[in-house]
């Protein structure tokens, strides 16, 4: 690919916020590139007109009730805090590292235990687990800080970290974390049963072999239920409630908005990209007055200039080459950005055309079978271009925010118009309605689908069940 094509592919894969950052960097780095000034100053008294473009667009609607919901979202949220779903909310507040360091600083630890504890905190993963050995961390302290930490001191510092809040921090794995949390609970019979289950029969617990657990522990079914209720209150990821720092959880910013009015669908490409242009100081070409067209002066193109004039012209040559390079880079950037926007809109328009029933109803069961070739047949784009245009992009509708990849789904059978999304939706409903004490096997789910007229194999049901993160029947069983 040419350098221009490589740059286009790279920008096509970017999300909206990433492209906004790229535009900002280009504006900072290239003096030939500038944003169009949208400020209007034409009034009868030459007063500055300060109404924003967004306010002007909202003013076009006769009634506030006619304003599309996504424009109201854009008005009520900035580019940095525009979050459309609870799941997409960025983590906020004090970071995990800051919180733990503040707690350990207030402890009674002294050097070198305090420094060792701080290094342990710095090695916790996003879930709050310690995946490195304390001996290896002690080596880091010796090298970086010049402090010798004995194995006993290293474990003493580690135990201090494991006593911090939230409970479960500093564990080596899930079993260890659950035990840390249980041991901080008020002593009770059900707590003792829960500790015994996790400590001695964790493998049976993870496989939901409840009958064997009750037999081995010598407890009743009711006592097992009480212990299990306590275990369910524990946090398997004690560090996930606090972010490691800024940017650890980024909000989902949709790239498109689909608004429905009756049978009419309006597609909008959402972004905060300014209109770009070539700066006036870089826009003028070197021209030959006699020819009236771009022309490279002899002093700029000469391979071996006259020695007597070379020194005098070197500054002019450098200035000319700088202007030409920056101007060309700015033109290429504007062109590539425009190509990206046009490509994204064309791809999303094709998706809306094929998945019209879904966008009218916001029902996932209405999603039709669709593959990259279907979009290529409408747009004429290469499959790789379509794939990159859809990757990491989202669309917001009245029903929520959806990834574009959700709309690409195959037909289970060539001669069947039922999409994989429709089958997945049916599987969810069947499993949702099952008796939790006697969950359905894949064979039973297959039979129910076949009873509804769907000719589908058991292995296909298993594949779709795994895709949506639902375990096998044995692991769905509840006591």
In a nutshell, what does this entry contain?
With 479 residues, the chain is of the alpha+beta class. The chain is built from 23 helices and 8 strands.
**Mean of all residue-level pLDDT scores:** 79
Basic shape: flat
User: What topology, given as strand order, has the largest sheet?
Assistant: 3-2-7-8
Biggest sheet details: 4 strands, mixed
What structural class do you assign from the helix and strand content?
alpha+beta
The percent range for helix content is 40-55%
Uncertain segments:
39-54, 67-93, 243-249, 287-293, 295-304, 308-313
Number of strands: 8
* Rg over CA atoms: 31 Å
Multimerization status: single chain
* Individual helix count: 23
Q: Assess the beta-strand content as a share of residues.
A: 5-15%
Q: Give the N-terminus to C-terminus distance in angstroms.
A: 60 Å
Description:
Helix content is 51%, strand content 6%. With 479 residues, the protein is an alpha+beta fold. The chain has a four-stranded mixed β-sheet. Strands 1-4 form a two-stranded antiparallel sheet. A hairpin with a 2-residue loop joins strand 7 and strand 8 (400-403). Mean pLDDT is 79; it is low at 39-54, 67-93, 243-249, 287-293, 295-304 and 308-313.
What are the defining features of this structure?
alpha+beta; 4-stranded mixed sheet; flat; two-stranded antiparallel sheet; 51% helix
Strands, helices and their partners?
Layout: H1 3-13, H2 16-29, E1 33-35, H3 53-59, H4 69-76, H5 96-105, H6 113-122, H7 134-145, H8 151-161, H9 174-182, H10 189-200, H11 202-206, H12 210-217, H13 221-232, E2 256-261, E3 264-269, E4 276-278, H14 280-283, E5 287-288, E6 293-294, H15 298-301, H16 307-354, H17 356-361, H18 372-379, H19 383-390, E7 394-397, E8 400-403, H20 420-432, H21 442-451, H22 458-467, H23 473-476
Parallel strand pairs: 2-7
Antiparallel strand pairs: 1-4, 2-3, 5-6, 7-8
Helix pairs in contact: 1-16, 5-6, 6-7, 6-8, 7-8, 9-10, 10-13, 16-18, 16-19, 21-22
